[in-house]
Amino acid sequence: MIVVDGLHKHFGGFHAVDGASLSIAERSITGLIGPNGAGKTTLFNVIAGRLKPTSGRVSMAGEDITGLTPHELFHKGLLRTFQIAHEFGSMSCLENLMTVPGAQLGETLWNAWFRRGAVAAEEARLRDKAQEVLKFLTIDHLADQKASQISGGQKKLLELGRTMMVDAKIVFLDEVGAGVNRTLLNTIGDAIIRLNEERGYTFCVIEHDMDFIGRLCNPVICMAEGKVLAEGTVEDVKNDERVIEAYLGTGLKNKVKAEVAHA
Q1: Start and end of every ABC transporter domain (predicted)?
Q2: d(CA 126, CA 138)
């Protein structure tokens, strides 16, 4: 579904993404791991249109989408969430979901004045869909709660719910587990698996929790210093010498080896 070919993103002399090439298969849940500063979020930002690439190419279902804006990609079904949730705090959870679909009839003054029946009918359909999404995510009891008053984990579920309000084809999740307790993280994981299996969603997930990655993701891609280092099952990647070195550093890795040999 997504093919990244020789992607570079430079900030002055710093190469945040340095010739990365990878692919994300349709209907997969692909994990993206790597130490801090590996370039994972920058890669997401380039793919999702928040940053223009220095060079390289991104394609989606065979179509070149390099450099398209976030709203253009949104209409193609490519969405992303953020490590820090971006909710409308003064609005209810239900209202947060109802704002997602674009080009709503009530957005124009003409329709608001002269097509009130059509506007009301569309709003009712969106309300029904939003209530269905909240129920799917097991947070329907928060429908009327202000989004600013719910927990961090519930905000992550709400962000996931936004992707369900449109015809999402692929969703990029940036550290969905950050600051989330284990119970809610399991709920988020369950929702991702159900969306993948029942509704055909494709996911790419940045996450540091390897138990969460291991439960959800196959394949797993590891980045370091802006490059793709390894790809495979979670066990293959965890046991890869290059991945161990990227996380532990050469000196510490050799020290661990020496201690094991001595033992």
Answers
A1: 2-250
A2: 18
Q: List the end-to-end C-alpha distance of the chain, in Å, as a whole number.
A: 47
Tokens of 257: 């080896």
Give the DSSP letter of residue 89. Answer: T
Q: Which two tokens stand for residue 159?
A: 């962000």
pTM over 0.85: yes
Contact 17/226 with Cβ under 8 angstroms? yes
Q: Where are the beta strands (DSSP E) in 177-260?
A: 202-206, 220-224, 227-232
Tokens 């997504």, residue located:
2
Candidates 163, 224, 225; CA nearest to 199 is: 163
pLDDT in tens, 93-148: 999 999 998 888 888 888 888 888 998 998 999 999 999 999 999 999 999 999 99
